[in-house]
Fold this protein.
Amino acid sequence: MSYLPFTKPTLDEATIQGVTEVLRSGWLSSGPKVKEFEAALSEYFGGRTVRAFNSGTATLEVALQLCDIGPGDEVITTPMSWVATANVILHVGAKPVFVDIDPLTRNIDLDLIEAAITPNTKAIIPVDLAGLPVDRDRLYAIAEKHRLRVIEDAAQSMGATWQGKKIGSFGDLISFSFHANKNMTTGEGGCLVLSDAAQIPLAEKLRLQGVERFPDGTMDVDVAGGKYNLTDIAARIGLGQLKQVDAFNSRRRELVKHYFACFDRSMGCELPQEDFAGSNWHMFQILLPLDRMRISRGEFIEQMKQREIGVGVHYPCIHLFSLFRSMGFMKGDFPEAEKIGNETVTLPLFPAMELTDVERVCTAIKEIIEASRK
Ligand SMILES: *Cc1c(COP(=O)(O)O)cnc(C)c1O
């Protein structure tokens, strides 16, 4: 049996051909394909202003800079995310303030946000974990009440919806990642949706060394921008992927429905919230019943690997990494997030998978858990 990874991008021949054409064109860095990609993304998000970047992390960092967030400021976010979400807050010199998650959605617990707000709080960075959108109505109600900016870390929720509206088609600043593991990819890349078109020049300067070019060929620099521009090669991959992302997401939903149908719930695993209205099913994550098993999560993953099945861990809690412990965070601070961090495993899910692959995964899990029962 061939190895089943936990994720794999799907690239069609037209995209591969298109990339070849870019390679032959002589223009590899940011050029016409980036402009075309940004226009296509803007259309996807209902006509909003979009700029492409070379990573999701870069879009988050630039979003913080656009909100003028820096030393002395606090930003509220979740400890259950990829570490990028918190690293960018540190990069701009601000302080991450973590709020525990809601065990049902595994996203930031909206009931706990207000207690974490101080006079220094400037923004909230919610994360749509596994592609399940945070409740945008409640989120923006809190933000408006306390005059906070919202930087949506929608790295995982491309194509997901809230109340029928695409994530990215409304809201303050919305950041997407096109890393190879995301629902659509440019290899590495990302995009930022801006609510205020007046900020486009600053966003573009922050993206590329702060440079502003004038028609007479001269230039000026008045801000120390980064080096965050996307290549035309990557943009061409993105153009091909964007056409397919809704189909990719429908396929993911079909596969997830099959997971729910095949999964033997008597084993005691906790399954994700069954959401077929909003989520783009970036990941299918279960919590292992470790208290009833004689093996650790690491051994479970190893045994899955022996059966040629790849399993991921998304994520160890951010606040328990040594960098964040050195800032005073400790075990026990966010018990709900820590439970997920300890027990979660990400099962294979990607558009090219077959329904029989889902069955193979479910059978393997059942065999391993039953053989290791206490
Ligand atoms: C992938 C991801 C990022 C970072 O995106 P990159 O493109 O890898 O920089 C940030 N936040 C979350 C939640 C992610 O999943």
Observations:
- Residues 3 and 308 are 5 Å apart (CA to CA).
